[in-house]
Amino acid sequence: MLAHITTFAIHGVESRQVTVEVDIRPGLPAFTIVGLGDRAVRESRERVRSAILNSGFEFPARRITVNLAPAALRKEGPGFDLAIACGVLAAVGELPASVLERVAIFGELALGGELRPCRGVLAVAEGAVAAGLGGLVLPAVHGREAALVDGLGVHGAIGLAEVVAILRGESDGQPPPPDDDGATAPLGPALDLADVRGHGGPLRALAIAAAGGHNLLLAGPPGTGKTMLAQRLSSILPPLSRAEAIEVTRIQGVAGMRPGGGLVTERPFRAPHHTISASGLVGGGSQPMPGEATLAHNGVLFLDELAEFARPALEALRQPLEDGRVAIVRGQRRAVFPTRFMLVASTNPCPCGYAGMSRCRCGEADIARYRRRLSGPLLDRLDLLVDVQRPTPADFAAGPVCRSAVERERVVAARARQVARLDGTGASCNAHLDGALVRRHVALDPAAAAVLRRAYERGALSPRGHDRVLRVARTIADLEDAGTVGADHLLEALSFRQDVAEGSEEEAA
């Protein structure tokens, strides 16, 4: 007797359709699983046998062969348990084959037959819709997450016996809770720009970065508020669109961060420690998994004390920053992870942090060695370099310069202008413009064009820096609701890159 069950394997942050073929023949009792499964898949034999028996069904004492097709696709994790168990029951006539052709089945089994959470349910649900299936049977804890995908009947169950009842038409399963109940709430106390004293220039740069999705480097002595500023960036970022929220939810589900959660509503803010490895930052491992760069997709990746990060880890960020994606290749496996994030970093000017002050005891060689930890190509990918110095006593005693609620309104309005202008281009904000889109959508008045030409002729900008300045200038114009980029907009954008360009030239010399 032969049965076919449809399930899915997680590959990167997406799913791949897998057909579970179960063949039962007379012979000595045996249970074999083939199809390039990992150890967790091979161990499912014991979970499936115990779950079937403990759920009140008979386990066939015959020769059972399970094939996970396509055989060339590597299968990982315990999410195939439920599909294999249903295949065994279908092969002995416990389940109707006609129903199994229209649904996908996904979930891990406990020895007692209970269903346990698995990672990647949203990706599985999207795969089921793409495959033309009408339903998905899975652990009830994931019902809310799977229900985010339109056009799919979601049937949650708490155990194998309930799954059998659903497939026999005797039950509809556990209904998924409303999506609103699963929305994520902000963690911890709300952070506001009103907490910052002084720092008018850095706060302006923060608003520009948020409005255009630009990368930002905060440089200055310790204790001047660099980390405080970066942590409050999230308070002025625009809300996630529905498509962005689905992407973030899928990524976090694949990473196993949201068992039973609903739609993510807050932009990610990731702040890894400086001891992180290159694979931890951009993804990798023998079984490729998302790194911090992917977990920050559509959000912020904050690297505090940038110069303390290992050079290989920082250099690994160059391609993700430029392309918005990273391809991880391990042997014959290739996984592509999205990496559209805002890079926000902070650094000190020297090992002690007080370069240029009387209290600094670092030699010139120490300072040069410290600054060489940040390569010119990496710095060239940063749009805004901001000098954060100690506020004056008057600034420190004064009230707040701005508040997050007001700045967020300006940022949201600027992003709305960008979305309307870039409709149909595949870009959603100015930071995502490639060279062709920059030339098409960034119009300069004659004075601004002359300023940019002189800056480029002096060698202050690389070709990449030339386009990045135009993107920032376009964002500054968007904040002012200006249709054309003027000289003032361009001069302000250049002011955020001059120090980077000069530092890179000195390092090269």
Descriptive keywords:
509 residues, alpha/beta, five-stranded parallel beta sheet, four-stranded mixed beta sheet, 23 helices, 16% strand, elongated, disordered C terminus
Number of strands: 16
What form results from the Cα inertia axes?
elongated
The whole-number mean of residue pLDDT values reads 91
> What order do the strands of the largest sheet run in, or round the barrel if closed?
11-12-15-10-16
Number of helices: 23
pLDDT < 50 stretches: 181-188, 499-509
Give the distance, in angstroms, between the N- and C-terminal Cα atoms.
75 Å
**What fraction of the residues are assigned to beta strands by DSSP?**
15-25%
Structural class: alpha/beta
What can be said about the biggest beta sheet?
A: 5 strands, parallel
Written account of the structure:
This protein is elongated. The protein is of the alpha/beta class. Helix 8 (about 200-210) crosses helix 21 (about 465-480) and helix 21 (about 465-480) packs across helix 22. It contains 23 helices and 16 strands. It has helices spanning about 40, 45-55, 80-90, 95-100, 120-130, 145, 160-165, 200-210, 225-230, 240-255, 280, 290-295, 310-315, 320-325, 365-370, 375-380, 395, 405-420, 435-440, 445-455, 465-480, 485-495, 500-509; strands spanning about 1-10, 15-25, 30-35, 65-70, 105, 110, 115, 135-140, 155, 215-220, 270, 300-305, 325-330, 335-340, 340-345, 385. Residues about 180-190 and about 500-509 have low confidence and may be disordered. Helix content is about 40%, strand content about 15%. The strands form five sheets. Strands 11-12-15-10-16 form a five-stranded parallel β-sheet, with helices on both faces. Strands 1-2-4-3 form a four-stranded mixed β-sheet. A three-stranded parallel β-sheet has the order 5-8-9, sandwiched between helices. It starts with a strand and ends with a helix. Helix 6 links the parallel strand 8 (about 135-140) and strand 9 (about 155).
